[in-house]
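Example (one chain per record):
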Amino acid sequence: MELPKKGASRENLLQQLDQISAQDTNWRTAHMFAYIYRVDDEVINFGKEAYAKFQTENGLSPFAFPSLRKFETEVVAMTASMLNGGTEAAGCMTSGGTESILMAMKAVRDWARDKFPHIQVPEVIAPTSAHPAWDKACHYLGLKMVHTPVDDGFRADVDAMRAAMTPNTVLLIGSAPTYPHGMVDPIDKMGELAQEKGIWLHVDACVGGFVLPFQRAGGYPTPPFDFAVPGVLSMSADVHKYGYAPKGASIVLYRNADLRKYQFYAYTEWSGGVYATPALAGGRTGGAVAAAWSVMKFLGEEGYVKQVSRMMETTRRMIDRINEFPELRVLGKPDSTLFAIASDELNIFALGDELKKLGWIIEPMHMPAALHVTVSPKHDEVMDALMKDMRTAIDKVKTMPETDVSEAAALYGMMGTLPDRKMAHDLVLEYLNGLYQVETT
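Predicted structure:
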């Protein structure tokens, strides 16, 4: 494919956008339980308006665009207040949870160089339930990842983390909640261990950062998870998830500004001038920053509590109803608005396929095999329809020959059981490499 010699008309291109996107999953129906955090159209449309007003401004220069500096510092301050950071907490906005994690890891690495200069390769301990962005950050930054098992309730096993520690350990990672199963790790016990050893504890609240504070405010049981826990030195939280801002808005927070400095990068020897950035990106769209500030101000604490309470009630009812199916069970006792569905008698991946045929997107997971559910506010409107289709899909899978499962279901089932994990890794890379080739017609 080559760049066209002449530009197309506005009308023609908009029509093409509609035609091409027609094959995408229709998230507007609230039939999707991943990727999109479906809230009321009023919030979505307001976020779009705010984004459009600043889509051209560049967050690279706080001097050229002081408005963006104001928005960013206030988003960080509001989030720090939500997470019990007090007046000392400091942070930055990033493009998403992965960049927030990468920046936190960069800060930990550079902090460790000052605090533990004898360590050649710093080690990081994370439960197997931690997001793979942590492994990605270790890969990029030259740190060693050490994985520890979760307990029977799918939460971090702190005794296993203690046993895995070596003189090179510099960081413990906890999740609030874990993405796969919706569990808040025992952050209080992890904080005690981090303080005892004089190392860093990060809480990954990319999913829960805009749920758990309002869950707590709404009177729902909420485990300790934030800066109120001694030993927590940094946190990450995504405004573009349950904060309902447009994509491209996350926050990484530190207990104080002295720790945040380890995240920054500066280069003073360039002929183009002094180059200094707070996060990974240089140029940053002002739209994401302005929209995050606007949506947070638009909803306020009262609005977030309302949406979280709505989701918590839906989650509880959904879990109860899923557990009523004798063929299914929810794994563990989730703490918030995420959970996983498993089965001891059905091919759970085939069940996901059948639900997809009926218009539902509930994504597969493995180790153990399960389907993942992220509950959004609008899901209260479709739960009854989902449960009706769930029964239909279960009955279909129960009578289905094992050979009738889709290629995708068969592949996912195989990936979790391959004894050669390098082979599994290489298969994924080959698949990804092929996926991002331009389509031929």
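Caption: The chain has 14 helices and 13 strands.
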